Amino acid sequence: MGLIADVNDMRDDDRPVEVILLRMGPNVDDTAMGRIAEATGGRYVQVDKAEDMPDILVGIVAARAEG
């Protein structure tokens, strides 16, 4: 059984686990990362430079707090 199927089997909408995936670098399988984020109700974000990481993380946390 694959990861996506495992995630779907374990999913509990009463106790969600949101997976946030950050991509940095050229050798990343965007399709797989997007599917994992989608299966968990999470996000997949591309980070171009390490310096962008704090702003990206603050944005993710702020969006989560807003609902």
Task: Outline the secondary-structure elements.
Blueprint: H1 3-10, E1 20-23, H2 30-40, E2 43-46, H3 53-66
Parallel strand pairs: 1-2
Number of helices: 3
Strand-residue fraction?
Answer: 5-15%
Shape: flat
Query: Main β-sheet: number of strands, strand sense, barrel status?
Result: 2 strands, parallel
Give the helix level as a range of percent.
40-55%
Which value, in Å, is the CA radius of gyration?
A: 13 Å
What order do the helices and strands follow?
HEHEH
Q: Would you report the number of β strands?
A: 2
Q: Which structural class should the secondary elements be placed in?
A: mainly alpha
Distance between the termini: 32 Å
Q: Which regions are unreliable across 5 or more consecutive residues at pLDDT < 50?
A: none
Major sheet: order of its strands? Answer: 1-2
User: What is the residue-averaged pLDDT?
Assistant: 87
Quick overview:
The protein is mostly helical and 67 residues long. The chain has helices at 3-10, 30-40, 53-66; strands spanning 20-23, 43-46.
